[in-house]
Amino acid sequence: MNVKPLSIITSESVGIGHPDKICDQIADNVLTKCLSVDPNSRVACEVFACNRLIVIGGEITTKAYVDVIRCAWEVLLPLGYKENDFDIMNNINHQSSEISAMVNKKNKLGAGDIGVMYGYATNETPEYLPLPYIFATKALFHINNLTFKKKLKGAKFDSKCQVSAYYDEAMKPVGIDNVIISLQHEKNADLKKLSNEIKEKVLLPLAVEYKVNKDFDVYLNQNGTFIVGGPIGDTGLTGRKLMVDTYGTIGRHGGGAFSGKDYTKVDRTGAYLARYIAKNLVAARVADRIEIQLAYNIGSEKPVSMYVDTFNTHKIKKENIYKIINELIDFSLTNIVSMFQLKSFNYSKCSVYGHFNNLTINKPWEELNLVDKIKVLMKKR
């Protein structure tokens, strides 16, 4: 490429059959089933998958009857596994009475834990996400969909994609350097043919979509075969793909996982709110990049602090950004749950391919319904 980049930044994503993502999908399937019957369910579901054993644990208090073993098979069977491939164990307990007392307050909700959450947005892509991250995520989304449709002969579902992008001095992406894909496949698959098909059917159309160069290097299973995948090949656990769930190394993460957690768990809900605020501010051209930090105390109805970082790209005074946020946002947990429809949301649709795009389902926290209001307030300041 004829550019002199300041840096090359790399992000990764994982596919629907990755062992950690299988665990996330099972946990969110259990959560969704609980809330569909009892919207006041309290769920903190964790899943561990190793070799041919899957353990579903955590704390759940609900009026619903949910067959968690069936929830697991609803994830596994479409990926090609058979019922004799795994033993599945249920080790679910009830939520701690002490946590319950702090969360379930009269006419309002309290945060289920202390913690710090981040939300990030950048104007470098239409999704307001970093280029290498959304490129890698969409690549696997399309590869997995082609695999479901049997249009990639020999491909299977355990997969990872890593994209390295050039950034200039203004922290704007100017091209793609390389794409690395690790793809599970059948024993007799033609990897060279698979590589060419993926480049033609997936990667080059993405390059056109994001208006970047097409001469990047592509590496598919460069250093060996990948026949044994999923939990049989590598251990899976909920909450181990935090950067894949969010912004792919460029935006920060507070450390709390999302999947398997109900709306009182601010690791999830607070991160959704922070992303919503950041995305709407960037879409309103308050700044080119924004990161929002929120912090909660257990049992508190609202965050105890908020910090806004614009990376020196803001177009209005920083103090006015805080004023706009506080004027437009009701930070109470009760309001967030209502605003994002978190008692009825299908969480099983957002446990893979990231929580901050609309690839699999339209997410209320991804809506840009504050942009016009922000622009009006900007003119007043």
Strand arrangement in the largest pleated sheet? 1-8-9-10
At CATH level 3, the topology of the largest domain is GMP Synthetase, Chain A, domain 3
The number of helices is: 11
CATH class of the largest domain: Alpha Beta
Report the span from N to C terminus: 43 Å
Order of helices and strands: EHEEHEHEEEHEEHEHEHHEEHHH
Query: Radius of gyration in whole Å, from Cα?
Result: 21 Å
How many structural domains can be distinguished in the coordinates? 3
Pathway: Amino-acid biosynthesis; S-adenosyl-L-methionine biosynthesis; S-adenosyl-L-methionine from L-methionine: step 1/1
Enzyme class: transferase
Domain S-adenosylmethionine synthetase N-terminal: 8-96
Cofactor: K(+); Mg(2+)
Secondary-structure topology with pairs:
Blueprint (H helix, E strand, L loop, with lengths): L6 E8 L4 H19 L4 E9 L2 E9 L6 H9 L10 E7 L3 H7 E2 L2 E2 L5 E8 L8 H18 L6 E13 L5 E13 L5 H19 L7 E4 L9 H4 L2 E2 L4 H4 L20 H18 L5 E8 L8 E5 L8 H11 L4 H7 L31 H10 L1
Parallel strand pairs: 3-4, 9-10
Antiparallel strand pairs: 1-8, 2-3, 2-11, 5-6, 7-12, 8-9, 12-13
Helix pairs in contact: 1-2, 4-5
Keywords: ATP-binding, Magnesium, Metal-binding, Nucleotide-binding, One-carbon metabolism, Potassium, Transferase
Protein name: Methionine adenosyltransferase
Family: Belongs to the AdoMet synthase family.
